[in-house]
Amino acid sequence: MTSYAILIGLSLAVILSYVFNLASQATRIPSVLLLLLTGIGLQQLSEYVGYALHIPKTLLEIFGIIGLIMIVLEGSLDLRLSRDKVPLIRRSFLAALLMLVSQAAVIGALLHLWLGAGWQTCLLNAVPLVVISSAIAIPSVASLTGEKQEFIVYESTFSDILGIMLFNFVDQEDFAQGGGLLTFGRGVVLIVLVAMFSTALLTFLLTRLRGHVKFFLLFSFLVLIYSLAKKLHLSSLLLVLAFGLAVNNYDLLLNTVRRWLPRLHLPAPAALEAELHQLKSITAESAFLIRTFFFLLFGYSISIPSLLSAPLIGEGLLVVAVLTALRFLYLRYVAQASLMPELFIAPKGLITVLLFYSIPAQHQLGEVSENILFIVILLTSVLMMVGLIISHQRPTADVEF
């Protein structure tokens, strides 16, 4: 394949993704689902013409990590904090936490019954299946407004962060002996301190850097800090969320800092307004580009013949049914919240793949677990599409069953 052929393919991929975004606004079909199906179609076409392209798992991981960072940053840059938002943030945090723990326990028990593997192994394989993918949820709810959109953005982001924390907790060597709680607690305290330091550093760079090239330098620092924290098994996605919230709520941050450190000289909020506008624009463009290539490549990597198994499809359907039932019970009887479209917007995707690829070799369950993962990702994306379509067709958003 020539260089120009590759450039033509990359350009067509970006154009196609833009068309999918326009189609998504009109049909409520998530653009990421269309990208996944396109990748699957390209894989079938390449097999038909006899051209096999191997997608390295490392390449998918790199696109996934950068995409996750940019998408969470994009979502957090649109969130404004205020006293009246505290109940919403608390409600979304509790939803993410309770759903994550309860669903992981139930799915882990199902895997234990099916495969007879150890509890730690089953829980490690269950966590990726229950984490809500903010990479899919956040861009898919752009058409929603008000608290519904903010709830999904907060919940999916908290689900990513808490999911990584739960995964790291279960992955500890002394987890089975119950001795990992102290180590986990130290990690939580450490990541909060690192988040405070990194947010201060990145905000300082944003206000002080001059010149035409600075935003991708800022992104490089963000990816660097994220990766270093990840190497220490910390929930580094919290750094991204904290930075985005701090920048978009700089006036609140400035008032807090001045209250505690009155002699510290910081730039006025007006000095950050133009920079914030550019940062949002570049972040959105970068997230769009990375998301396009990740989901196309991920769809291309899915092997259709291995998924066409009646027992396997049944197991995937059962997992999705259990996840949806638990979410229904929480929203209806615990949170007493509206069900449409919140019940159906719990897609699995980018973070699911990244966590699955992070499972140590001794805890991997082989092709069965991997194929169930693919089926769950596709089915939850279809469910989200149905929820968005139904919600759009109804004049009243708060629908109770």
Gist of the model:
One of its GO terms (cellular component) is plasma membrane. The protein has helices spanning 3-27, 31-49, 57-76, 86-115, 119-130, 134-140, 146-170, 181-208, 215-231, 237-248, 250-260, 270-301, 304-307, 310-334, 350-357, 367-393.
Oligomeric state of this protein: single chain
Overall strand count: 0
Net shape: globular
Assign a percent range to the helix content. Answer: over 70%
User: SSE order in H/E notation?
Assistant: HHHHHHHHHHHHHHHH
User: From the helix content, strand content and strand pairing, which structural class follows?
Assistant: mainly alpha
CATH class: Mainly Alpha
Keywords: Antiport, Cell membrane, Ion transport, Membrane, Transmembrane, Transmembrane helix, Transport
Membrane topology: Multi-pass membrane protein
GO molecular function, one term: antiporter activity
InterPro entries: Cation/H_exchanger_TM, Na+/solute_symporter_sf
Task: Describe the structure in your own words.
- By secondary structure, the protein is mostly helical.
- It has one domain: Na+/H+ antiporter like fold (Up-down Bundle).
- Helices cover 75% and strands 0% of the residues.
- The protein has 16 helices and no strands.
- It has helices at 3-27, 31-49, 57-76, 86-115, 119-130, 134-140, 146-170, 181-208, 215-231, 237-248, 250-260, 270-301, 304-307, 310-334, 350-357, 367-393.
- Helix 10 crosses helix 11.
